[in-house]
Amino acid sequence: MRVAIFGLGYVGFTAACCIAHEGHTVLGVDVSESKVAEINAGVPPIAEPGVAELLTEARAAGRLSATTTIGSALEEIDLAIVCVGTPSAPDGSQNLSYIADVSRQIAAATRPGRSRPLTVAYRSTLRPGTMTRVVAPVFRAHLGEAFADTVELVYNPEFLRESSAVKDYFNPPKIVIGTADGQPSATMDALHANLNAPVFVTAYGEAEFTKFVDNTWHAVKVAYANEIGRVCQQLGISARTVHEIFVSDTKLNISPYYTRPGGAFGGSCLPKDVRALQFIANDIGANTHVVDSLLRSNEAHKNHQLQSATRDLAPGARVLLVGLAFKAGTDDLRESPGVDLARKLLDAGFALFVHDPALDPRKLVGQNLGYAYAHLPSIDRLLVDRTAAEQENWDLVIATNRLIDDLDMTGRTVVALDVIP
């Protein structure tokens, strides 16, 4: 293919070199005359392992050149990739002026009536909604309501780390393609044909949000790791050894577990251990702000789920809560989010009933018994059996776990809290 890349910074220039290495012909576009001159002279404008060799190879093969103006070159281009910056504005929002400006340039240089639409792929980090509310209107203004016949707009986030960007390009952790209808793009399939990675094709919003989720999670990991490091230093123990043990666990610690949006955490371990770590950190002056926020965030999530589930209900409505224990198949009520939810539903004036076949209040003992009656003293009269759960009339059924799968809830309004779709 013939590919134009707008913005020749770390992401754009690295992509240009890698795409040229794949055998495509690449035209780089950048406002910096000095950067363009360096590239055309075979000199990388950035320091990044591997790009100098790829640039030399591409220049020798006549597959990579750069310019400051696009002119009529888009008429021969199959794919335009936008890699301009989206820096922070003073209030923390994204400055999208470069995105809008480049979009206008591409739209103005695109001739209607092409034999096949020009694919315009955005790799810059964009707030969800940017493709539909900023980018698409620019093309509509220049090319009319039928602009989709002339251009195919795609959002394709990049996952390149500086210092290993070339390796990351050819071995990405995933490929994400966002399109207007959530369907695959033949042009993007061709671009990534030689890359071996999971491919996710979605609507724009999910693709746009991916980079924010990834990068914020990376920031959480770094901040959390550093807080643990501070605690280790203050306690005189080896942070390196603690880290080695932590990352060796790929079943739970480094895994998809605990990262799927759904129910709040609870049970006999997580809340108490977080509190204990908070106390230790405070006692030794380690200042663990991320850890300190965990319980507050968890409580906020419980309130959010209650409000979302009961938004359309009036006090007095009959509500069936399926699953009271911390996990299905157990009778452990200690710090169970289900218990908190039941208490909040009662406080809000709903007629609450609970179905949890593993629970028998007569068999609760020790801390479990104390917690149950301290937080939900009416537990005995709330519990209903399977027959009642399936046959009585409920205004709303709230499922806290997969116990709901064993019940016939045909025709009922069911809200599942363990998964956020």
UniProtKB/TrEMBL annotation:
Residue span(s) of domain UDP-glucose/GDP-mannose dehydrogenase C-terminal: 320-406
The reaction(s) this protein catalyses: UDP-alpha-D-glucose + 2 NAD(+) + H2O = UDP-alpha-D-glucuronate + 2 NADH + 3 H(+)
Pfam families for the chain: UDPG_MGDP_dh, UDPG_MGDP_dh_C, UDPG_MGDP_dh_N
Binding residues for NAD(+): D30, K35, T86, T125, E162, K272, R334
Keywords, comma-separated and alphabetical: NAD, Oxidoreductase
GO MF term list: NAD binding; UDP-glucose 6-dehydrogenase activity
Keyword hit for Metal-binding: no
EC numbers on record: 1.1.1.22
Catalytic site: C269 (nucleophile)
Gene3D superfamilies according to UniProt: 1.20.5.170, NAD(P)-binding Rossmann-like Domain
Pathway(s) per entry: Nucleotide-sugar biosynthesis; UDP-alpha-D-glucuronate biosynthesis; UDP-alpha-D-glucuronate from UDP-alpha-D-glucose: step 1/1
Chain sites annotated for binding substrate: F159, L160, R161, E162, K211, Y258, T259, R260, P261, G262, G266, K327
PROSITE patterns, A to Z: PROKAR_LIPOPROTEIN
A single BP term in Gene Ontology: polysaccharide biosynthetic process
Family indicated by similarity: Belongs to the UDP-glucose/GDP-mannose dehydrogenase family.
Protein name (database record): UDP-glucose 6-dehydrogenase
